[in-house]
Amino acid sequence: MQPSPDTRALGAFLSERLRALVTITNLKPVTSGARRINALFDATIDGHATELVITQLPNESDAFRSVDSEVRWLQLADRVGVHVPAVIAWNPRESNVGGPFFITRRVAGVSIPKHVVALCDATPGLGSRVAYELGESLARLHRVSIADLPSDIERPAHSAIDTAMIWADDALSELLVPSPAFALVTRWLELHAPPAVPSTPVHGDARNGNILVNDDGLGALLDWETAHIGEPFEDLAWLAQRMWRARSEHLEIGGFGHRSDLRAGYAAERGEWDDQRFHWWKVYRTLWWGLTLAGQARQHLDGTFRSIVMAASGRRVAELEWDALCLVRGSAGTSMASTT
Amino acid sequence: MHDRPTQAELLDIIAETLRETVVPATAPHARHQARIAANLCAVLAREMADTHNPATIMRRLEIALGLPAGHGGIDGVTRQLRLGGAPTSEAIELVSELVRMKLDVVKPGYDQHGAEAEHAAVS
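Structure tokens for the assembled complex are given below, as produced in the milestone run.
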């Protein structure tokens, strides 16, 4: 765990950047992992009180992407009407405040998945509204032309589906224990791959756990660390994974909403819906997460990242094998013919 | 022959101590890890008592995949599933049975939510 940012240095940074007298109080870390810390704080800017959040990385080399790049994604999302917190300042370099960071306005709401589900359970209509607003937000992001994205964002060499299948086969070959389930699911994906569609910007990790929800609905879509150029249903189907439902299994979207809510919001912002494509990506993202968990266990075992959390991931793989097989078993078009 | 408590009984009390004594007295960043440690002790205790034998299912899977004798095993089965024809219902059921055996150890009850329940969740 990394230390909290230095309050005095943060105040000095904001004073200089905003050309105002800034004092910082009540700095309180809320989530903290190996890679980044989020802390709430109160700022007084030339006498005006405001509530802010700092997201800080331990150092420049540990980040998935630079703070500059994540800020550009946030600003792009804000410009096109996605629910995101407004960025007010950032520093892409290590400094006396600590590692690279960005500061956003605080959006009210809960983000822990079981709290999101509990709030939606207790508030009639809220879960449907959040799913609808997620559909709207993602449609606004997905219709941005990739020509309008910053030039430092990598343009993929292959379609999103080809990239996905290449990744899956690489990950299968690296498994420490062979997985008949994932091999079967990968074959199913290969046989059922839909035709390529034009690439779009995608969030990459839109799910219950990366959203802020309050009494009014969706407060913000957070954590743009893995935003990239891909395919819309990568995002939409990721919301539907069983593991984000916080035991509220019967509600496909995050344990709080229905697919029809998400689809209605997506369509309201001119997003084109395709249930077969949604299903393919739902199967793929389940496989992807299972293979990623196996990779975490491998990183623990080879010493790249020793941690009980990473070790335990290896014993969660069976959950994703089960989920993926359920999705394949329930699919139309599964052949009854011999496999040979 | 060792004395009591047995391995399983010791794992039980380690898990219980972690859950009921260590977790409540631990700082938030370590609490999650202590909880995971308790869960892993419970997994180990179940693994030690596990009586599942996947060999029969593996043999049926080899036959279902048309693998000649001596070309099976988990590597052969996995290769055939990846590179062979479209997955059959029989292959899906047998592979699911193998996964269910693992789930009984790592996450008992997880398989209560199956394909039908997931289909019902889609609306």
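The CA atoms of residues 185 and 324 of chain A lie 7 Å apart. The first strand of chain A starts at residue 22 and ends at 32. Further analysis is deferred to the final report.
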